[in-house]
Write the structure tokens for this entry.
Amino acid sequence: MPAYPLYLAPMEDVTDPAFRLLCKRFGADRVYTEFVNADALVRDVASTTRKLRISDEERPVAIQIYGKDPVSMAEAARIVEQSKPDFIDINFGCPVKKVAGKGAGAGLLRDVPKMLEITKAVVDAVHTPVTAKTRLGWNDEQKIIVELAESLQDCGIRELAIHGRTRAQMYTGDADWTLIGEVKNNPRMHIPIIGNGDITSPERAKECFDRYGVDAIMVGRATFGCPWIFEDIKYYLTTGALLSPRPMSWCVDILKEHVNRSIEWIGDEHKGIIHSRRHFANSPVFKGLYDFKQTRIALLRADTKEDVFSIMDEIVRKWG
Ligand SMILES: Cc1cc2nc3c(=O)[nH]c(=O)nc-3n(C[C@H](O)[C@H](O)[C@H](O)COP(=O)(O)O)c2cc1C
């Protein structure tokens, strides 16, 4: 393992094989699939089992599952194991209503005995190392992570990823890393702790490694339209210097490659473009360009590959 491992966070509708492989190319030390619904896996729903497709090129790779029932989670873990991931990760952090509101994901932060029952059931069901990802707690009044981390460790998980927000925060406010640091520095903890939340720059990544002592950092939203962020962070962590800014034409070539790979993965040009829009909308490549508003609107509305690519070419000509 490198001195400062950097992982691509699991993200629904984002971390498909196309994106995982790109992030891997730029140095992600581990990638995670989107979360996979345990009940749908057990029912063998085709759109869900498709999410289990992983390749040797992207290893080490974790497949993440979520659900609220220990029996179906254990069964799902056994199904997942057949795909031979390096890790099976349990999602105890998803805050959205359709998941947490139904008692799965972060909903289990309100029912710790059930969370531990699920964890034990999954750990016992498979030989693959099991990891978990969660948040600080349900809300400000109930930040239970320090104690919870010990209990999850006692259930046999091999690593714990912590997003420094509560469920109530959803994605608002700033991630609070102090409790992540407290978990890491708890002498009872011996499994690796992965810190997550608001890592958007090489400098912030270094600060979090240095200040909180985490074993690895997981990067989520800052990878949108920027899979090379792993290389930027790595370079800074190993040399103490920032890589010089990349030419816009180089970045646009990578974004185009991502569009091509997304279309290939989804098997439909229009759907592949829609799927890629999140990356265009959030890419640092298109941030802060003077008088860019109309072009941005056109880029986000374009619905053929030809149109998207020609707008990108125009952007490079005009602003590159
Ligand atoms: C679009 C989107 C989808 C996400 N899907 C998942 C998921 O499937 N499983 C999970 O554990 N976390 C999921 N997350 C949470 C991220 O993994 C991560 O914890 C969160 O974005 C905070 O990290 P960041 O500040 O680096 O983005 C998702 C986040 C976003 C923005």
